[in-house]
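# step 3/5: fold
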Amino acid sequence: MKEKVKSSSDATVLCMILIGQLKLIQLKDVDGTKLVIEETEKLLEALDGITEVHGRFYELSSNYYRLIGKHAEYYRDALRFLGCLEVDKMNKEEQMERAFYLGLAALLGSGVYNFGELLAHSILDSLVGTEKQWLVDLLRVFNAGNIQAYEELRPLWTTQADLAANELSLRQKISLLCLMEMTFKRPANDRQLTFVEISNEARLPIEEVELLVMKALSLGLVQGSIDQVDQHVRMSWVQPRVLDKTQIAGMKKRLENWCKDIRSMELLMEKKACDDILT
């Protein structure tokens, strides 16, 4: 079949995708599917723009990664798949399934610390008002780094086997997100956090604070320095994330304060210049 369509790049890629779907769904050939995905991805890079073929590929690759339990890769390609189609064309059951698996992948995926893109997607609306709405609430809690709300939702999220089995890694992830949110909320000229402040916000013993900060630094989530003697951390940068409405409102307020400070300095300089001229 591939020989018959080799003159068309789109058709060749689509043919490869169909072979991959056959191997994955019908033959349960995981290794064979992996080879097809790797080969198809190279062909896909040569295509211009984003087409329906891209959507079919990301559907295949995301289903493959979900099957083998690679949460971060599934999260990445499942979001790409959703970006290639209109969610309204999916039936309610499919929307709910995709939303649920995406939510789990965001929480369990190694290196996934940006929940904003998923939270802004309409796919999550399919879970609102259902028995699985707790997952949407939990995603918002993680995005805000809210440890207290995380503990309050414990009776709900621990009913999901994968989340309950990964409780320690979830606790570390939300602690890191808590530190990121603390840094983000601070004005750029006031990003010194004490060990006590971090301990209280992240609800960690103070002797574990330094390890948390070192972990965040090593992952590239923040940049800064640790003063072990005075027990404080000076942050200079936090990894950019897709912001929700609350975070955007906070940034707006900080920008307004910044503009006021600039205006005050401008008036002070004008007054100083006038005084110098008069004298």
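# step 4/5: annotate
The longest strand covers residues 232-238.
# step 5/5: archive (pending)
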